[in-house]
From TrEMBL:
It comes from the Eukaryota. It holds the Pfam family RRM_1. Residues 174-235 form the RRM domain. Signal peptide: none annotated. The keyword RNA-binding applies. Keywords: RNA-binding. It comes from Aureobasidium pullulans (Black yeast). This is RRM domain-containing protein. The keyword RNA-binding applies. GO terms for molecular function: RNA binding.
Length: 278
């Protein structure tokens, strides 16, 4: 940013903070490279690029201690790789909860065996924060965590983010459909089972008494909670000896939430009259 190397990091940070705060509240960090050239990084606290775009347009060439600064977009590391200390397979909800205490995690994904071998990664998953500073705070605070290792992923290390296409024409990303439930199931049981994945806003239990089945719609506060509920293998759990949990995304058409046919997992010959619920 063409800063004055005769100034201290504190002086430069305070001055950059003062200038960039004209656009909005932001974090600023100043570093010196191997040649003692100072560079400052600023990130606005909103989760959109509007303030950064405005700063690029309006503050380019602003004087900082008499020197016109040059502003460029930075690739700030916001991704953390998490692995278990015992080397076993990572269970997503625990690190998601730990990281979420520091700020919003906007995306997570698990590399496949080929990607792990290519980049020499242990068993684990990537978690990307919405904001840089929240990522820094989390890695610093969780450095000595008893159960997990949290590693900051720098820009010079390739990270393959999968392209997650839509599951169907229209879905509610924060809700799941749970089918093939026993008729006696209630809201409290479902909240107990699915509350592990995050805060539940609402549970709708619907019963088809004549067919002796029930299904439910569960609405989470965050979309990643719904994603985890859909991908967690522990949900293949029997409620009774004949009923299993079958989560899917609920399709929506406008404001109408259509019923998705539950997948029957018990043998059809036991219940010959219950092969189609539509």
């Amino acid at each position: 940013m063409c800063l004055d190397r005769s100034r201290t990091a504190t002086e430069l940070t305070d001055e950059v903070q003062r200038i960039f705060a004209q656009i909005g509240e932001c974090w600023v960090k100043t570093r010196f490279d191997a040649k003692n050239i100072p560079v400052a990084f600023a990130q606005y606290k909103t989760q959109t690029s509007e303030e950064a775009d405005e700063a690029m347009a309006l503050l380019q060439g602003s004087p900082i201690f008499g020197r016109a600064c040059r502003i460029e977009r930075a690739r700030a590391p916001r991704t953390v790789y998490v692995q278990r200390r015992d080397g076993m397979e990572l269970h997503i909800p625990m690190p998601m909860h730990q990281l979420g205490l520091f700020g919003r995690v906007e995306h997570f994904w698990t590399p496949n065996e080929t990607e792990r071998a290519l980049h020499n990664l242990p068993l684990g998953s990537f978690f990307r924060f919405a904001l840089y500073q929240h990522c820094q705070d989390a890695v610093r605070a969780l450095r000595n965590d008893e159960h997990h290792i949290y590693t900051l992923q720098h820009a010079n290390r390739p990270v393959n983010i999968p392209n997650m296409g839509p599951i169907g024409p229209e879905v509610d990303p924060k809700a799941i459909y749970v089918g093939d439930l026993p008729l006696y199931i209630n809201e409290q049981q479902l909240r107990y089972k699915f509350g592990y994945f995050g805060w539940i806003v609402n549970v709708e239990v619907r019963r088809l008494v004549r067919r002796r089945i029930a299904f439910a719609y569960i609405y989470f506060a965050e979309d990643w909670s719904a994603t985890m509920a859909l991908t967690d293998p522990s949900l293949i759990t029997k409620w009774t000896s004949t009923y299993m949990l079958v989560p899917q995304y609920p399709y929506v058409a406008g404001e109408y939430l259509s019923r998705v046919e539950p997948k029957r997992v018990t043998p059809h010959n036991q219940y010959p009259g219950r092969t189609n619920y539509t």
